[in-house]
Design goal:
single chain, about 400 residues, mainly alpha, Growth Hormone, Chain: A, 2 domains, 15 helices, globular, membrane
């Protein structure tokens, strides 16, 4: 038994080294390319394209998420239907081409179109990462791994200002500094997209670098999840089940996970209350409120984990992964609109709206936990404790009565 545990830990470390660096860099690069806009705006983009008006610039930022909404489901279903490695490599090359075309934009309308299509193509990266984590890791391992690749969004924001400050200092040549930023980013992304053809993880059976014994152990680990293997057939029944599943809608719109997420909502609610009620003169308390609002990240990471660990059936899992980031896009569209300029400088109405959203999240997380706990108790009573199913059976969590929800 001890030897098996050591072999299992050794295999998990090997999976981590094979998957995590590639997914972390891919997600960080995607976030880097998306976020160049704010730095390019400082180095001449707004003046060159005549979008100095605050509302125009806001729409250039927001339209990315409209594209994200459009692209999330189609690309997620492509990743479910075809080899994940191929889909991720292709979309990375395409989004690199969109980035490389950005310096050619000469008008506000052209930039809007460019940003919309960037959102469409980049929409597949996050759901693909969720699918990969769900395929390779057990339920107990998934949240930590999801938090690792997602945290690279913050990592890219630490590095990108330094790189783009240097590029912004370029004064020679026929291009503006912001155009160099996009050309360098696009070239790097294009090169990485080509590399992903060989680097990005494929299915358990086809990814190179694992021995026959390790592959057998990989399949045994999947068995522990009671979620079956990757299946390339789109199953309409699983689509209908996902659309009618209350858990799907709770994850999509509440972005919350049970007790951990309910707890993470409380500091955000307190932070909004401080910013709403404290007078402007109490700067220390208001700064504390801003810090407390950032606790939402811990809730979001748990939600990403829910999208893979609490669902079975490959088509349904792909829909859950996409739905999670549809909710993400909606939040990024609605959120800025809550902070209308007419509420400046305190934006009390915006913080009230944000507080209401997280109160709803808190309640939904607790209700979802109660519903899933009741379902687990019902299954234990009617079907007994968990047992393994055949790993080739692509059953949903509703069809597989051995499945138990993580709460």
């Amino acid at each position: 038994m001890l030897a098996d545990e050591k072999a299992g830990r050794r295999l998990v470390r090997k999976i981590d080294w094979r998957l995590m660096p590639v997914m972390c860099f891919t997600y960080g690069l995607q976030y880097y390319d998306k976020a160049i806009l704010s730095q390019a705006a400082i180095f001449g983009l707004r003046e060159d394209l005549m979008i100095e008006d605050g509302l125009k610039y806001s729409w250039v930022s927001l339209i990315f998420y409209f594209g994200y909404l459009v692209g999330t489901y189609p690309i997620s279903l492509l990743a479910q239907r075809y080899r994940i490695r191929v889909v991720c490599s292709v979309i990375c090359v395409i989004w690199a081409m969109v980035i490389l075309c950005t310096p050619a934009c000469t008008s506000y309308a052209g930039l809007l179109v460019n940003r919309f299509f960037l959102g469409v193509v980049e929409a597949g990266v996050s759901p693909i990462c969720m699918l990969v984590v769900g395929l390779w890791y057990t339920h107990s391992e998934q949240v930590l791994r999801s938090s690792l690749w997602y945290s690279c969004s913050g990592g890219s924001l630490l590095i990108s200002p330094l790189i783009n400050y240097g590029l912004g200092s370029i004064t020679g040549g026929s291009l503006s500094p912001w155009q160099y930023m996009y050309l360098i980013a696009g070239a790097a992304t294009f090169a990485w997209g080509i590399a992903l053809w060989w680097l990005f993880p494929d299915s358990l059976e086809k990814t190179p670098g694992f021995s026959t014994e390790e592959r057998q152990l990989l399949l045994e680990r999947v068995k522990l999840n009671n979620s079956g293997l990757e299946n390339k057939d789109f199953k309409l029944g699983q689509f209908k089940e996902a659309m009618s599943d209350y858990q799907f809608w709770a994850i999509m719109f509440a972005n919350a996970r049970l007790y951990i997420i309910a707890g993470a909502c409380l500091p955000v609610i307190l932070g909004c209350a401080l910013l709403w009620k404290l007078p402007t003169s109490m700067q220390a308390g208001r700064i504390l409120g801003f810090y407390l609002i950032n606790f939402f990240s811990s809730a979001w990471v748990q939600c990403i984990g829910l999208g893979t660990s609490n669902v079975s059936g490959h088509t349904k899992k792909a829909l859950y992964a996409a739905g999670t980031f549809v909710g993400y896009s909606l939040g990024n569209i609605v959120g800025p609109l809550m902070f209308d300029a007419k509420y400046a400088p305190r934006y009390d109405n915006g913080f009230i709206g944000l507080m209401v959203c997280f109160v709803v999240c808190f309640c939904v997380a607790l209700l979802l936990r109660q519903a899933l706990a009741a379902e687990n108790r019902l299954r234990d009573r009617e079907f007994g404790t968990q047992s393994d199913v055949g790993i080739s059976d692509d059953l949903t969590d509703r069809e597989n009565k051995n499945f138990r929800y993580n709460i």
